Amino acid sequence: DVKVTQSSRYLVKRTGEKVFLECVQDMDHENMFWYRQDPGLGLRLIYFSYDVKMKEKGDIPEGYSVSREKKERFSLILESASTNQTSMYLCASSLKGSTNTGELFFGEGSRLTVL
Amino acid sequence: GNSVTQMEGPVTLSEEAFLTINCTYTATGYPSLFWYVQYPGEGLQLLLKATKADDKGSNKGFEATYRKETTSFHLEKGSVQVSDSAVYFCALRMDSSYKLIFGSGTRLLVRP
User: Fold this and answer.
1) To probe the interface with B, which of A2, A43, A54, A105 has the most B CB atoms within 10 Å?
2) Do A102 and B32 touch (CB under 8 A)?
3) Which of A12, A24, A49, B48 could form an S-S bond across to B57 if both were Cys, CB 3.0 to 4.6 Å?
4) Angle at B71 between CA A43 and CA B21, to 5 degrees
5) What is the 8-class DSSP label of residue B83?
């Protein structure tokens, strides 16, 4: 069964802390994505990566960075967490190229609270 | 820019009622269209999709038809069950992109 695993389901951090959200997929997918989900706003793309060490900014990259050192792992980093980054973070992956049907496979999400 | 608009929720129905969740889109070109579902405590999963005008996607009793003339992709189900209670997201993807653009989501609550 295909699987996208996010390391932490719930995190509570303080303002100014550095936060790492980890995501691992076991499907050998080239593309990986980080979205944040907020009530009334749906899902908004933060960053995506189409290959190892490659990344592109999404719609709301400010305050975030990412790392993709291995194909299966995509990390989201909050260098200095702020209260407006309290949210649900969703990782997803997909195939690339002609085999890409547009389907994203999602993890269960990481709910981050910044105090 | 490209965008998706969904009806606001929550939508509350009794079991076996007919469901419609409206979705319209704005796109420069002809996108592929998707419905994703998020059950409580879970990540999103693909429910159905359509890649060109007049295509009908269907799965688990849900249907949606890609209507280019009205730029719509409304989700329907003839008889909902309590287990259909979830948040439903409409989304589009342009052929030139890997990214999905999501609507704001519609929460459905089905009562016994």
Assistant:
1) A43
2) yes
3) B48
4) 55
5) G
Question: Is the CB of A42 less than 8 angstroms away from the CB of B49?
Answer: no
Per-residue pLDDT at A1: 66
Q: Which residue of B has its CA nearest to A90?
A: B43
What is the pLDDT, as a whole number, of residue A99?
53
Nearest to B27 by CA among B97, B106, B112: B97
Kindly list the distances between the CA atom of residue B41 and the CA atoms of A57, A58, A109, B38, B62, in Å, as whole numbers in the listed order.
28, 25, 9, 8, 21
State the Cα–Cα distance between residues B68 and A66, nearest whole angstrom: 37
Residue of B nearest to A42 (CA): B104
Mark the ranges of chain A whose per-residue pLDDT is less than 50: none
B102·A48 Cβ contact <8 A: no
Q: Give the pLDDT score at A97.
A: 65
Q: For each of chain B's 112 residues, which pLDDT tens digit applies? A: 889 999 888 999 999 999 999 999 999 888 999 999 999 988 899 999 999 899 999 999 999 999 999 999 999 999 999 999 999 999 999 877 778 899 999 999 999 9
Q: How many CB atoms lie within 10 A of CB B18?
A: 10
Beta-strand relationship, B23-26 and B32-38? unpaired
Distant-in-sequence, close-in-space partners of A1: CB < 8 Å, separation ≥ 6: none
Tell me the DSSP string of A78-113.
Answer: ESS--GGG-EEEEEEEE--GGG--S--EE---EEEE
Q: What is the pLDDT of residue A90?
A: 96
